[in-house]
Amino acid sequence: LVRMDRYPLITVLTLSYNSTYIYESIQSVLEQSYPHIEYIIVDDGSGAFCRDEICAYIKEHKGSNLEDYQVIVHPQNLGTVKASNTGLTHSHGAYIFNLAADDVFFDPDVLIKWTQEMIRRNSMIMTGRYAVYDEKMTECKGLGPSDEEVWILESKSPKKIFRKLINANFIYGCCTARSRLLIENYGLYDENYRLSEEYPAALSLSRQGIVIDYWEQPVVKYRQGGVSSPWRFNPDYERYSDKILIRDILPYVNLKFYIKLRYYFWKLKRSQDSRFAYEYSQICGEKQNVKVIFLCFRYPIPTLRILKRKLSGKYKTTGR
Question: What mean pLDDT comes out for the span 41-54?
């Protein structure tokens, strides 16, 4: 075990944009047992974000282990990539941990155990498990990544990880920590993108032979409804997905036609999921349950997938 007095300063980075649950996220950071924490919040142009109130809350509730904190406000929305890079350029920690403004750390000892594991393995980047919860954070829907994705990560093969990443991202920012050394050697997130930071970064690192370590521990409670959930599949998300395919996948693979074909089928599925999710929420809001029957005929594939998931008792994520 690493001695407590040798634990380095670490940074927790929270990105905020019109978040309803940011105080829950802040509290989960302030409750951490890690002895040397720097906390950085970057608000990316929210409509009603009060920096003074956030600072006052942190000042009132922080412990002696919070050595420094910064609340940075972008005057306009620049996207998650630039917001992440803003936080990284202001950070000083030896390791950087992400916590979205609608998520919470799994328990108060996550950061101390996670940092210890990264030091023990001399890890540059490490991803752990995430527990998917409902909106009220009362019911756990399941754990990610999937068994197949865990098997790929445990192979410690950058080539295998890259081949798996071609299908879809499974290195999520909510449960991935980076070392200062990784950032110094491989740079910040790619600002050719606006909304996608972790996926292009994971593709790039695995192409360059960097091992993405895996830790078999749940590190965060992820509230359903992230940017790439079925509810959020919109033209912006679709445009940046296309850009990732063109810039970060196709130049580095064979069988380009096959990869393109599979990608377009994936887009079709996500588009159907998005429309189904939206219309289903409208029906539930209007309490007109009889309309669900017609919705099932219109979108049979999403319906069958949901039924299969409920009958099996398992939760399968669709990527973030």
Answer: 94
Q: How far apart are CA 101 and CA 13, in angstroms?
A: 10
Structure tokens that stand for 219 in this block: 């590190």
Residue 99 and residue 28 in contact, taking contact as beta carbons nearer than 8 Å: yes
Residues 159-195 have pLDDT tens digits of: 999 999 998 899 999 999 999 999 999 999 999 999 8
How much of the chain exceeds pLDDT 90, in percent? 70
* Residues in Cβ contact with 269 at an 8 Å cutoff, skipping those fewer than 6 apart: 301
CA-to-CA separations, 193 to 41, 178, 239, in angstroms, rounded: 21, 20, 10
Nearest to 95 by CA among 9, 206, 210, 217: 9
